[in-house]
Amino acid sequence: MLGKKADFRAGSRDMNGSKDVVELVANTPGAIGFSGIGYKTDKVKVVPVSKKKGDPAVAPSIKTTLDKTYPIARPMFMYTPPTVRPEVTEYLKWIVTEPGQKIVISTGYVPLPEFAPKDN
């Protein structure tokens, strides 16, 4: 059961966020960690994973995330209260436009399927 101290190896570190995990792994020989695709750097090795033992391992990418062959991808949701300021509504509309999705891609995240690069 998660949350029990016995579930984690002695010496494991609880980090504040994905950036901290990647930084620690990059600077600690033998360290492993779990982080989002947007935090991937050339200083850490990305390890392919399989859904179950014996299945082929799949590396994370825009393509494998969108086609659901990468087994531990998840969607990102943005929630707001029922009523929000107009600029919040405009921002949320902008995120799903081509300029907004170009920023999603340029920062290393997975865009909406219709904006995915054709050669991913």
If you had to describe this structure to a student in words, what would you say it looks like?
The protein is mostly helical. It has a domain at 75-112. Helix content is 28%, strand content 0%. The model has no long low-confidence stretch (mean pLDDT 90).
Give me the number of helical elements: 4
| SS class | mainly alpha
Radius of gyration: 18 Å
Unreliably modeled segments: none
Q: Let me know the average pLDDT.
A: 90
Please state the overall shape, judged from the principal axes of the Cα atoms: globular
Strand tally: 0
Topology:
Blueprint (H helix, E strand, L loop, with lengths): L17 H10 L34 H5 L19 H10 L2 H9 L14
Give a brief outline of the structure.
The protein has 120 residues and is mostly helical. Helices cover 28% and strands 0% of the residues. The mean pLDDT is 90.
Main features:
0% strand, mainly alpha, 120 residues
